Amino acid sequence: MLVYVFETKEWERRYLTEVVKDIELKFLEDRLNKDTVHKYKDAEVVIVFVDSRVDREVIDQLPKLRLIITRSTGYDHIDVKYAMEKGIVVCNVPDYASITVAEYTIALMLTLSRRLKETVQRTSRGTFSREGLSGFDLSGKTLGVIGTGRIGKYVIKLAHAFDMRIFAYDLVEDKSLVKNYHVEYVELERLLKESDIITIHVPYTPQTHHLINVGNINLLKPTAMLINTARGPVVETKALVKALKEGKLLGGVALDVFEGEEALIEDAYLDRSFSSDMLQNSLLVSYLAKQERVIITPHNAYNTTDALFRMLRSVVENLRAFLEGKPKNVVHDH
């Protein structure tokens, strides 16, 4: 079986070559998309990362394709529905970075609450004044967690250790979180109105597109903090710009994911074409990054050595399980 592994780095090649000796793997730096797919028409399995775009146009040009594995938890870069219609199995790696992203989320909270961005910038310039650098404690604050799946659960566990009051919004309530961490499940409107800090941990689906938007961002407290480590389009970028211009979100904004990131991360705009909407969002994010109370990071929450090796081990397990006729971590269209 011919397996193409896209967007690979040298350490990934070394690891996979060592642990997968009985299957032919072809390693590529290319992303898989409509511009590159013509080179890989013989692929039976493709292993991709988040910058590939495996849409209907790409799938139609891979007549032998049986399996798509993404080296990520999210899979919004794959047309899962169309793949299923074509009899192609799609697998992800659902749990490799849950604690990793949760820890990063708490780090962003602390960075904003203790004004570390401004502090480091100031001392880097040789100024050691504490004037205007007063922050606030997490203890006693109300945290609103949108999405209580694997990552959201870990965030709640860590936030409980900070003695925070915890609201949660999810379509399915987790009774163990209520019992062990005194989580109170509430409607989204109440969570937005009453939370001091809001953190987002839902997958990107048509239902979660612009879950935070120009309409409901006005519900937030003026002093609220907003963190997104989920998927960029869950938060409408224009809503953030509007709120900040109106003097809201005084607690700060931290985005590890954002609309238009495809055009910015790793200088992708140098060799790819993008829609006008994506480019506009990229410009808005560039504007946000210059604001004092905003932190932008390049989709980096998952990126620890521990998590990356867990991810590769899961990829190998997915591949072997499929070849044994017992596919695991199979994703389905929402």
How would you summarize what this structure contains?
The strands form two sheets. The protein has a seven-stranded parallel sheet, with helices on both faces. A five-stranded parallel sheet has the order 2-1-3-4-5. It is 35% helix and 14% strand.
Number of domains: 2
- Tell me the fraction of residues in β-strands, as a range: 5-15%
Low-confidence stretches: none
Count of runs of 4 or more consecutive helical residues: 12
Find the CATH superfamily of the largest domain: NAD(P)-binding Rossmann-like Domain
**How are the strands of the biggest sheet laid out side by side?**
8-7-6-9-10-11-12
Largest sheet: 7 strands, parallel
CATH fold topology of the largest domain: Rossmann fold
Q: What is the CATH class name of the largest domain? A: Alpha Beta
**How large, in whole angstroms, is the Cα Rg?**
21 Å
CATH architecture group name of the largest domain: 3-Layer(aba) Sandwich
Class derived from helix and strand content = alpha/beta
The string of secondary-structure elements, in order, is: EHEEHEHEHHEHEHEHEEHEHHEH
From the spread of the alpha carbons, the general shape counts as globular
What distance separates the N and C termini? Answer: 30 Å
Average pLDDT over all residues: 95
Say how many strands there are. 12
Roughly how much helix do the residues carry, as a percent range? Answer: 25-40%
